[in-house]
Each structure stands twice: as C-alpha cells, then as structure tokens.
Write a structure and sequence with these properties.
By secondary structure, this protein is α/β, with parallel strands linked by helices. The protein has helices at 3-10, 29-44, 89-104, 131-137, 142-147, 156-162, 174-178, 233-250, 284-304, 324-334, 347-351, 378-397, and strands spanning 48-51, 57-61, 70-76, 113-118, 180-188, 198-204, 207-215, 219-220, 253-262, 268-269, 272-280, 308-317, 320-321, 339-342, 357-362. Strands 1, 2, 3, 4, 5, 6, 13, 14 and 15 form a nine-stranded mixed sheet that branches. Strands 9-11-7-12 form a four-stranded antiparallel sheet, with helices on one face. A two-stranded antiparallel sheet has the order 8-10. The structure holds glyoxylic acid (GLV) and manganese (II) ion (2 copies).
C-alpha cells in the first residue's frame, strides 16, 4: 500500500458527509475502524503488533530481531469533534510509508523502528489530552484516569474493560519506555508559520484546560422577574469576554469551545452552565496569570448574580523545549529546514519528560487545523515522508 492508498483508505472513516469534519473519538466505532486499519497495515508489512496496557498501539520492525534502543515514530488516529483529516493520521500513514521506503532502498537498521498510534491524544472523549502517552509515562495517576467520564457518563476504566484491557493495569510502562531510545512525531503544521514543505519543531508552548461550573436556579423565562433571577448564563458570558480580554493583555490564547447548559431549554432560565477554557501562552506564568484573571472576573460576575462558581484544572502541560541534540540531528539530516515552535499539544511533548523527542512538521497551506479546512498538499506530504525516512535512517542506522 502506497502513501496515497493508505490515505485514501482512511479518508472516509468517521467523516461527516455534510461538514467534511472528522469525529473519531477514542474507542468509538470510527476510531476502532482506524485501529483495525493500523493493525492491517502492520501485518501487511510483517511488523510485530503490540497493544500496550494503556491502549496505545505499536507496530515494530525488528531487523535481525533487535529489541532495544528502538526509534519510535507515529502519532495518533483520534480527532477533535469536527476535526481535519491530517491531525494525527498524517504521522501514522507517513511512518508506514517511511518504513516501506527504507525497505525498498535496502536499508537494514541496527535498531528496531516502531510506529505508534497513541490513544485519546485529543482528549475529545475523556477530557484529558494525550491520555495514552500520559498514562504510559506516568504523567497522570491511573486512579484519576480510570474515573474520567465521557459525555454519556461512561468511565474510562469501563470503556477499557469493554475492549479487553484491564483497567487495574493501566499506568507507567517502564519496560516499554526502556526499549525506546527516542520518539520523532511527524505532524501537519497547525498554523501558517511554516512556509517550506517541511520543518522541525523547537518547542511546544504551555497549555491547559480548565472547567468552570456555574450553578444558579432554574426557573420560568416569562414569569421570573429579572431581579429575582440567579441565571448562570450571565456570569458565564462575562467569563468568556474576560478570557478574551486577559488573553489580549498577556499575549496569551484563550478559547471557550465547549459549553453545556442545563437543562438547555429555550424558555427556561438555566440551572447550571459548565464551560471549558483552553488557555495557552508563551510562558507558564502568563498562562497562569491569564487563567487567574478569568477566574476572578467569573467570581465577581457570579457574586453579582447570586450564582456559585467552581473552577477545576483538568490538565496542564508546561513548556516543552525539544531535545536540542536530537533536533539538531534532524535538522542536520534534512539540511537547512526551518525550526519553529507550536501552540498545539502533542504526545511528543508528553514523552519528552522521559525520552529525547522531536517533531517534523508538514506545511499547511490553509493554516487551519481542528476543522475541516485543515490541509497539506500531496507533494508536501510526500516531502514529509522523505524527510521522515531520512531521519529514521539517520537515527536507526547510526
Ligand atoms: C491538540 O492538538 C491540542 O493542541 O489541543
Ligand atoms: Mn489536534
Ligand atoms: Mn495531533
């Protein structure tokens, strides 16, 4: 299967025919179809398949039976709600295509090369991004992970059990980590910063997710006097505007992309509003200050309207500066490609706490991501595969 054939096989999976957006949430049918595709591609190539205790998938090429010092590549197969085709799958498809090129060219690496598909990278189902790699590296406590719930109230632990994974065995996997020498993730670039076909990542900016819960009093839209209302929608609205203002003041990014209203009726004052704030910025203290100011504005507005407000941090990822030696080695193997930071989170950022990690970016001409317009030109995708091939050769043969 060529890059184009693999890409074409994945393209319809989980795609909304109306919007063109992808809905591939961890352990839902479209994502399971992507997993089945991964296993087929691995077996087609005679790679050793491994599903780890945390539900991450690996396909290992072990020339001569080599087991240790593996060079790991890959990405993820799940998506955000209504996401683009490239975020995640481009790295996995490119990884298989790069192994094909190495074999076609008669390269026989001394180290194993692994292709990874990390579970629940987007956190679209259970709320914590990079859940699979966080569990693998010990960045999230197994107890907390087991209790995470999806929008239908299903616990992560129960979903794992339904797919033959033992929820009591999730958590750090030193055996697996000990077999890997480095991780290189190829990813579509998610803004307009990359003007060459391929680039190398320097850093991931700090980012996190916070949940605001506003609790008021449900009541009738027509009979409740304005002065008698305890409407949680009002402090919520103030919180959204405060988030934008704070981001502008601190040079940060804030987004409120998800909100749940209870009971969500046109003619009922809501009893509760839950909203998620995504906050990112150039430095940890700026992100922290931004969120603190949003919280303060939400508290002031809630007090004014007789509403209770609660804030919970669901995840936080400090700044990641990718391993300089590995980054320089990639840039050297590729000969003068741009080196750039990103505002997007990645498993490579989580794994960086345990291993040297690096990222290759493929140009995105629309600059759009997490939306259907996300794109990479076929020629740039193939340039990405060539770059990854050169990098894997350099790392696994050197
Ligand atoms: C994942 O892509 C994120 O940056 O949230
Ligand atoms: Mn993403
Ligand atoms: Mn991604």
């Amino acid at each position: 299967m060529s890059f184009e054939e693999m890409w074409a096989a994945l393209l319809p999976v989980g795609r909304d025919p109306g919007t063109g957006g992808y809905h591939r949430f961890a352990w839902t049918p479209p994502e399971l179809e992507c997993r089945a595709w991964f296993l087929d591609e691995a077996r087609r190539r005679d790679l050793d398949v491994e599903r780890d205790r945390n539900g991450n998938l690996f396909a290992w090429w072990r020339p001569g039976g080599a087991r240790d010092g593996a060079v790991l590549t890959g990405s993820h197969l799940d998506s955000v709600p209504g996401g683009g085709a490239y975020d995640g799958p481009l790295g996995v498809v490119s990884a298989f295509a790069a192994i094909d090129l190495l074999r076609e060219r008669g390269v026989r690496p001394g180290r194993p090369i692994g292709v990874a598909a990390f579970a629940e990278e987007e956190g679209a189902r259970f709320g914590v991004a990079c859940l699979g790699s966080r569990l693998l590296t010990g960045a999230i406590a197994p107890d907390r992970a087991r209790g995470l719930r999806d929008r239908d109230g299903r616990a992560f632990g129960d979903v794992l059990a339904a797919h033959d994974l033992d929820p009591d065995r999730i958590g750090p996997d030193e055996d697996l980590l000990g077999r890997v020498s480095c991780y290189v993730e190829l990813h579509v670039e998610q803004g307009r910063a990359l003007t060459a076909p391929v680039g190398v990542a320097s850093a991931i900016v700090p980012h996190g997710r916070w949940r605001f819960g506003f609790a008021g009093e449900g009541n009738h839209a027509g009979t409740t006097r304005l002065e008698d209302r305890r409407d949680p929608m009002l402090p919520f609205a103030r919180m959204v505007l405060a988030a934008r203002d704070a981001a502008e003041r601190h040079g940060a990014f804030t987004t409120v992309g998800r909100v749940e209203v209870t009971p969500n009726g046109v003619n009922a004052i809501p009893s509760a509003v839950t909203a998620w704030l995504d906050g990112r910025g150039p430095a940890d203290d700026l992100v922290r200050r931004t969120v603190a100011e949003v919280h303060e504005a939400a508290r002031d507005a809630a007090r004014e309207h007789g509403v209770a407000v609660e804030l919970a941090e669901e995840s936080y990822s400090p700044v990641v500066d990718f391993d300089t030696a590995l980054r320089d080695r990639l840039a050297g193997a590729l000969g003068g490609v741009p080196v750039l930071p990103t505002g997007a989170g990645h498993d490579a950022g989580i794994l960086a706490a345990r291993l040297p990690t690096a990222m290759l970016f493929v140009r995105n001409p629309t600059g759009v991501s997490h939306a259907p317009a996300e794109h990479a030109e076929p020629a740039d995708c193939l340039a990405g595969v060539e770059a990854l091939t050169a990098v894997l050769k350099n790392l696994a043969c050197g």
